[in-house]
Amino acid sequence: MGGIAAIVMTMCTEASSFRARKLRIGLSHDSLPAVDDFLSRFADRHGWTEEGANRLRLVGEEVMLSLINEEASDGPGEQKRRLVASIRPESGSAELEIVVASDDAIEGNIENHMAYLGQEQELEDEELLSIRILRHYASSIHHRKYYGIDIVSCRVEK
Fold first, then answer.
1. pTM to 2 decimals?
2. Is 57 exposed, middle or buried (0-12, 13-18, 19+ CB in 10 A)?
3. Ordered structural domains, the chain, with CATH
4. Which of 1, 95, 138, 154 is least buried, going by the fewest C-beta atoms within 10 A?
5. Which residues contact 91 (CB under 8 A, 6 or more apart)?
6. By the 8 A CB rule, do 104 and 74 touch?
7. Quick one: pLDDT at residue 69?
């Protein structure tokens, strides 16, 4: 009897829109269209307004560009970094999590850049522009770094 209940609950979870959607892809500029399509399909499936969908897509793009630029500034690595993006709906928002894994040593943190970037500070490079865009469009952003792994979580309001 418990097995049947577990199967029914699994089927309900599978059919539910609350299940996180995932995308697995290499981290590169060539991945940007796939991530954009992934986020657009999520927004369409969950009835987001055009403005909300654009915010979600922009946050995804800026996180990707920040991670790609960070990788480029670290120099050529022996291994390509792989990206797993997952997104799940929450009441009136979406939680986007991007995990990038590699064997390279990690330095720099988007969340720390946001904390230390003053409102009056002039834009010095593309990275600071991305950070300002993320701060404007994402209601929250958390960047955790471990040896060889970046985990960026963003909340975007509908």
1. 0.67
2. buried
3. 20-157 (3.30.565.10)
4. 1
5. none
6. yes
7. 84
